[in-house]
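W.,

You were right to be curious about this one. When I first looked at the sequence I had no strong expectations either way, so I just let the prediction run and decided to look at it fresh. Below is the sequence, 328 residues in total, followed by the output.
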Amino acid sequence: MVEKPLPVIQRHTDAVIKVTLSSICTSDLHIIHGCVPAAKDGVVLGHEFVGEVVEAGSAVKNFKKGDRVSVNCETFCGECFFCKRGFINNCIDGGWELGCKIDGCQAEYVRVPFADNGLTKLPDSVSYENALFVGDILSSGYWGAELCEIKRGDTIAVIGAGPVGLCAMQCAKLSGAGKIIAIDINEQRLELAKNLGFADFIFKPENCEEKIRTITKYGVDAVIEAAGGENTFEIAYKIARPNAVVALVAMYEKNQILPLPEMYGKNLIFKTGGVDAVHSKDLVNLICEGKITTDFLITHRFSFDSIKDAYRLFEEKSENCLKIALQY
């Protein structure tokens, strides 16, 4: 914990946000572990948050002081080659910057570049807690489902019943999937996926390929890999049927082997992260309509002053921790 100067408007398109709730992401841990080459030393961590606009640059058209907002995990200009195609993760003047290249949200105030693009106004019926995960975790789950090109009735496997995986299951259902198979090593998370109605079948990784063949003869129609574990990439391509999509939304800390000879003829399509979080407004509307929720993700709450304890709990994954809400 350090004292830093209050952030100020640097460009006319910036806004300064007073953080009301934030969270810790596994990506923050990847930075701490030195597994994100783009991360700059000394940058305030954090990119999952909601808050209140306290100042807006002169070029910001859609937001004003006092607006309640969720914030996109990505910074994007909306005008470059990639932004115009929806690939905001690759924005020429942005991408994953907050908490990585510029100061992030695990602070009392944060500067958000390209505020008209990166902020989503919250209606009165959507609380800060309801919207805490819109800009990253929920967007990542939605994006994973979107990558799968789901057709009505498809059988989708989601590897990892953590926060992104659970959101991906929910979004896959919303996209018309017929059956959802959840795979995880954690029994409590698997049971949660089933009890929430997100998963129709729950399996541990052991022998899951054989178990899946009892549900769908040729393998699943698409896989969302949201775990990033030691063997989850291998599981993903093995349980996919020929010509399936394998959406890799997890962030790996080690290189993965693509065994092309073994997969030859299976004609798989691999799509990789990070997230193009372009649907935040739609997701807020879905929350407002009661069609989607992330409230179940908050399992622990800490004051901002106790953030070190929060990090310790989150990294150890103890006490059945899913996500932490840091209150300011």
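Here's what jumped out at me. DSSP finds eleven helices and 13 strands in the chain. And, maybe more interesting for your project: Residues 141-272 form a domain with the Rossmann fold fold (CATH 3.40.50.720).

Coffee later to discuss?

I.
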